[in-house]
């Protein structure tokens, strides 16, 4: 797989562990994304540089991050992470856990707008 080229040993194992331990909002968003956009391939906890993207659509160059309570006081860290991911050619969209759990239809609509803005065939 192209994303793993040149990655340190343990990258695959770490990604697997992150998928196993994923919080419910990430799991729910992944399920609804796959249902709403079945022609796109959605990857969960995919490595990008030193980071792991919560949800990635490689063909659309889109990363979706689901932020829980631990991100409340980490804006600077999240901005740096987003800047790195953007420098790799990806667009980054962030959603709070509460948005995913309470307004998944709105989140999917927002993702659809982002995909159409890029000119996707979705």
From TrEMBL:
Domain annotation DUF559: ranges: 14-115
Name by which UniProt lists this protein: Endonuclease domain-containing protein
Record bears the keyword Nuclease: yes
Residue segments, region Disordered: 1-20
Keywords: Endonuclease, Hydrolase, Nuclease
GO molecular function per UniProt: endonuclease activity
Organism of origin: Sphingomonas floccifaciens
PANTHER family from the UniProt entry: BLL0828 PROTEIN (PTHR38590)
């Amino acid at each position: 797989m192209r994303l793993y080229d040149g990655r340190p040993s343990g990258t695959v194992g770490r990604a697997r562990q992150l998928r196993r331990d994923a919080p419910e909002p990430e799991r729910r968003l992944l399920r609804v994304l796959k249902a709403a956009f079945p022609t796109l391939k959605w990857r969960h906890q995919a490595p990008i540089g030193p980071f792991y993207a919560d949800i990635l659509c490689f063909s659309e160059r889109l990363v979706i991050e689901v932020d829980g309570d631990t991100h409340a006081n980490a804006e600077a860290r999240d901005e740096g992470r987003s800047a790195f991911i953007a420098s790799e050619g990806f667009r980054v969209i962030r959603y709070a856990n509460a948005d995913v759990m309470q307004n998944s239809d709105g989140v999917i609509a927002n993702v659809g707008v982002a995909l159409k803005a890029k000119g996707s065939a979705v």
